[in-house]
Design goal:
The structure is a single chain. This protein has 598 residues and is of the alpha/beta class. 44% of the residues lie in helices and 15% in strands. It is built from 26 helices and 19 strands. The strands form 4 sheets. It has a 7-stranded parallel sheet with strand order 3-4-2-5-6-1-7, with helices on both faces. The longest helix is centred in the last third of the chain and has 23 residues. The chain is globular, with a radius of gyration of 28 Å. Bound molecules: zinc ion (ZN). Zinc ion (ZN) binds next to helix 23.
């Protein structure tokens, strides 16, 4: 009965005849009013699981999601189908809030989207408690667990919401999570009684390859020409992304790169080139891929071993969304193993983290009980120098404090150099002729610079003035000091946004339980990755065990299932004659050095 109604709605708004996988079961449970959890792999049609029940219920469905872009997509998708949906974004005065809720009530709205941060506003919560809410949908629900790799402190606000709306059924959706995260998620969301539906994590069209090689660069260059279509190469650092994209392009495989330090216009230009298949590879940090909808990604390569299996599986999952066979390569050598082992040994000294936080606040003159909403920009390099900390350690302190919910870390955004012409022509005329010429040239090129800051292409301008970039920058600084123009040099700045008032010394103390959870979960995740790299069993089985799923049969396609234990000696000899190096042979024949010797 329920399912027939649900199918009618599916046909009416989406045009499909039937549901896929677990969708029907999840929808049936959610519509019957019980708390429901759906764990579906990426691309498994998660949003329909709350959208159809939302349409079948008489009242409003509220949807909580951690990513603004994702929320905007889902909201727009509903609006495009002629469904009334509201998205809370930006700031609201009490009056605007009143209008919004009145609209929701009398305007026949079916969906309202908002970020979990909004729940901490008591007025917002008050309005929600009086609204006619039929269903509470929580997307990316694993973000509520401190055991997860994606923990977001703001998600703990959902508890407040649950306490306010205890009678309203919940549907929580997420991709696969480890057993511990699943258990914690049910507890935190207060839905221990929920019906849980979990889809198999296995994606048979992905052929997973984890390949040991002492020479990644050589194997990458040999591999790329053999791969069809376009793909993604994930690397850990921004520098590596730029370097590899350049190397590949020089070797005749046009490639682009993407990381959080790029300007917005660069980001969109680089993504566009890749989306339109104008480049072979996008070399990117993990910042790339969230919300990118490209079905025909043919392959994914990991240049560095990821820190966690969750991260790894999310990233390889961006290949083969259209269902076609796609191969993924994880290239690793002993340094990756050593790095992961070291990560386990390096546990944070909590007192040092607390003292860093206090010093930081004092330096910024943030008093106890204040500072909420305050944003501090800084350069990581300078901050590390000031506090005499190695950068990696500083970053782990900052992240741990973020994990505690005290601030939000906004990773560096590179700013473009800018100028503003603040003086008049009659002033310029009195300057030495080379400064005069420079200012006139600048005015010709950037006439708006007299009104406002404009971006300046330093290299190009320096070339025009027949100067080196460094000399040119010095001249701009001099002119800035003299008050002839304003010059904002290029800089790379990160920021910390205080999401809570600064706690007093006692309240700041990191609870032992919290540290314990943080350390243990980090250990478990790192161990998981190490086990995966060192395993000899089917890689899909390893993933299934890590995520607490039933272990399926060996996949038959991964690098362990297809491992060549007895490499053909004549083939080996032929390759050697043709000039192949030893690691080429291991790589191409998928065998290990020991097997080759025998
Ligand atoms: Zn396998």
């Amino acid at each position: 009965m329920i399912i027939n109604d649900a199918k009618k709605v599916l046909k009416q708004y989406w045009g499909y005849d039937d549901f896929r996988g677990l969708q029907a079961d999840i929808i049936r449970a959610a519509v019957s009013g019980v708390n429901t959890v759906g764990l579906l792999p990426t691309g498994g049609g998660k949003s329909i699981c709350y959208q159809i029940p939302g349409l079948l219920y008489p009242g409003l469905t509220i949807v909580i999601s951690p990513l603004v872009a994702l929320m905007e997509d889902q909201h727009n998708g509903l609006v495009d189908r002629g469904i009334k949906s509201y998205h809370f974004k930006g700031s609201y005065t009490p009056r605007k809030l009143d209008e919004a809720f009145r609209n929701l009530r009398y305007g026949n709205y079916k969906f309202a989207f908002f970020a979990p941060e909004r729940i901490s506003n008591p007025l917002f919560l008050e309005y929600l408690s009086h609204a006619d809410i039929s269903l509470l949908a929580i997307d990316e629900a694993h973000c509520i667990s401190q055991w997860g790799f994606d923990f977001r402190p703001s998600y703990l606000n959902v508890k407040l919401l649950r306490e306010t709306l205890l009678e309203v059924p919940v549907i929580a959706l997420t991709a696969s999570a480890t057993t511990r995260v699943k258990r914690d998620m049910l507890e935190q969301l207060m839905i221990a009684d929920a019906e849980v539906f979990e889809g198999s994590i296995r994606r048979p069209n992905l052929h997973l390859q984890a390949r040991f090689t002492p020479n990644k660069e050589r194997q990458l260059l040999r591999l790329i020409p053999t791969l069809p279509g376009t793909g993604i190469i994930y690397a850990k650092t921004r520098r590596t992304c730029e370097k590899l994209a350049q190397l590949l392009s020089e070797e005749g495989h046009p490639s682009s790169y993407y990381h959080a330090g790029l300007e917005d216009d660069q980001k969109s230009a680089h993504s566009k080139a890749w989306l339109n298949n104008q480049v072979k590879a996008m070399v990117a940090t993990t910042a790339f891929g969230m919300g990118i909808d490209k079905g025909d990604v043919k392959w994914v390569i990991h240049w560095d071993a990821p820190d966690t299996l969750e991260g790894y599986y999310q990233e390889v999952g961006r290949a083969g969304r259209d269902g076609s066979v796609s191969t993924t390569y994880l290239l690793f050598h002993q340094y990756d193993i050593a790095r992961l082992r070291k990560a386990i040994e390096e546990l944070p000294d909590v007192r040092a983290v607390e003292s860093f936080y206090n010093k930081f606040c004092s330096r910024e003159q943030i008093a106890y009980g204040s500072g909420e909403g305050h944003k501090v920009s800084f350069s990581i390099l300078e901050l590390a120098k000031k506090h005499q900390l190695p950068i990696a350690q500083l970053l782990s302190y900052i992240r741990l404090i973020q994990h505690r919910g005290l601030w939000q870390f906004i990773e560096s955004e590179r700013s473009v150099p800018k100028i503003k012409l603040t003086s008049q022509l009659h002033v310029w005329e009195r300057l030495p002729s080379k400064d005069y010429e420079l200012l006139i040239a600048m005015y010709r090129l950037y006439p708006h610079a007299t009104d406002d800051f404009v971006r300046i292409d330093l290299a190009r301008f320096a070339g025009m003035m027949q100067q080196t970039k460094a000399d040119f920058e010095k001249r701009l600084e001099l002119l800035h000091e003299k008050g002839i123009l304003e010059y904002a040099p290029e800089q790379s700045a990160s920021a910390l946004l205080f999401t809570q008032p600064r706690p007093g010394a006692k309240a700041l103390k990191f609870p032992a339980k919290f540290i314990d959870a943080w350390v243990k979960s980090k250990e478990e995740r790192t161990e998981g990755m190490l086990t995966f790299l060192e395993s000899e069993s089917c890689l899909f089985q390893e993933i299934e065990m890590y995520f607490g799923q039933v272990k399926g049969a060996p996949c038959g396609t991964c690098s362990n299932c297809t491992r060549n234990h007895y490499p053909d000696q004549t083939q080996v000899e032929r390759m050697q004659k043709e000039g192949a190096k030893l690691d080429d042979i291991w790589f191409d024949l998928n065998c290990s050095p020991d097997e080759l010797k025998s």
